[in-house]
């Protein structure tokens, strides 16, 4: 008396504990928020240091990217992301980690076929669809501009 | 000569024996509940090599070397070696075994490979095709992660159903003589009940384990109570529960004798491995470091070893295919 796929799916769902969504959401909110607050503090700091707003914004991004790559290389970022969850994903840090981690992982396959090719395995889709979306929106903006 | 009993099971009347066995594992496994049982624990999971794949090969090589050394056999005395692993083209085995010069029969059975290689070795010895045959398999957490999932340093969260690939290898030398004997074996069928979640391998493999165990029990006219233990390979806690529930439907209660190598090898809470261990090296190292020594010590006599495998690849998963499972069974008697 073998169960059908549907029956087995129900059995599996019953046997499989769900992810702790409440806890994950709280940690993502708190840590993600803290990262953004840190970003704001950095922005104010760079401003106080004499940078104009645009330069200060760029410096904040560069700081986060640098920090993430450093933490990734020290094998600490994955431990942080395990706790922070989506909070580590939303800010610019998630993207930097997605680029840095395959670069470290695949250096055994050489600088070209390893690092060069595999660096985009995780972040590649973000670039493809991000750029595609910006083209679509650019087109919409251009069409609207024709009627102005 | 091997003899068919029932529709699916093969008896090995000459009683091929497991003359020697050894397990080599990584430091996380060494830190687990079975830590004191392993023959070799790597201080560093790179094994001093330049890549994770080389480290895995080294584990497999080490396991074979120790198993041969225990009974003073030289590699040239081994007629056949049956080996496999999880890596593309089974490079863990081919590179790990290239220096031995033993005729190699490469196998792929995903995480079921220890039972698959052992049943082939027992068949070869029973049929007189080999005086001595070795069965060996390995897996490595890091080489499996980079092939099947994400880079190690990628930040993400694993769901509670995920399992942790064991870094380890196990090797058995099979031949005629004194030792724990292989009495019978049941090769697995591909069983698929439509599970698609690659983070729930236990659920994908449990139907295959239930199928193989059921076929073996029917063919031999036995029931779970006739065995001291029935070990599954790496179902983890979720797969183990599903296996028992599937067999409940057949009127078979496995709970009293069932144990799962994936549950045994790690302390799930302390070592943060979620649903348990997995990988070819999981059942291989638990077999060689715990089950066989327990049998040799007389604490277990009549044992079924049923290693389970999930037969998907990253390509099949990306193409939306479900995950077929397979489970091979070996009946061992001390």
Overview of this structure, please?
The complex is a heterodimer of chains A (148) and B (334). Chain A has 148 residues and is mainly alpha-helical. Chain A has eight helices and no strands. In chain A, helix 2 packs across helix 3 (53-73), helix 3 packs parallel to helix 6 (92-105) and helix 6 runs antiparallel to helix 7 (111-118). The N and C termini of chain A lie far apart (70 Å). In chain A, 20% of the residues are buried. The mean pLDDT of chain A is 93. In chain B, strand 3 (17-25), helix 1 and strand 4 (40-41) form a beta-alpha-beta unit. The mean pLDDT of chain B is 96. Chain B contains ten helices and 15 strands. The chains are: A mainly alpha (148), B alpha/beta (334). Chain A binds chain B through residues 1-3, 5, 8-9, 11-12, 15-20, 24, 72-73, 75, 77-78, 80-82, 84-85, 88-89, 94, 97-98, 100-102, 104-106, 108, 121-122, and chain B through 50-52, 146, 150-161, 193-195, 200, 203, 207, 238, 241-242, 245-246, 249-250.
Q: What is this structure's SSE topology?
A:
The complex is a heterodimer of chains A (about 150) and B (about 325).
Chain A: H1 5-15, H2 21-48, H3 53-73, H4 77-84, H5 86-89, H6 92-105, H7 111-118, H8 124-146
Helix pairs in contact in A: 2-3, 3-6, 6-7
Chain B: E1 3-5, E2 9-11, E3 17-25, H1 27-30, E4 40-41, H2 52-70, E5 80-85, H3 91-97, E6 104-106, H4 113-126, E7 132-139, H5 141-148, E8 164-165, E9 168-175, E10 180-186, H6 201-220, E11 229-232, H7 236-248, E12 258-260, H8 261-264, E13 277-278, H9 280-296, E14 302-310, H10 314-318, E15 325-333
Parallel strand pairs in B: 3-4, 5-6, 5-7, 8-13, 11-12, 11-14
Antiparallel strand pairs in B: 1-2, 2-10, 3-9, 3-10, 7-9, 10-15, 14-15
* Helix-residue proportion of chain A: over 70%
User: Strand tally of chain B, please?
Assistant: 15
Query: Roughly how many Å is the radius of gyration of chain B?
Result: 18 Å
What is the N-to-C succession of helices and strands of chain B? EEEHEHEHEHEHEEEHEHEHEHEHE
Annotation, overall tally of beta strands of chain A: 0
Radius of gyration of chain A: 21 Å
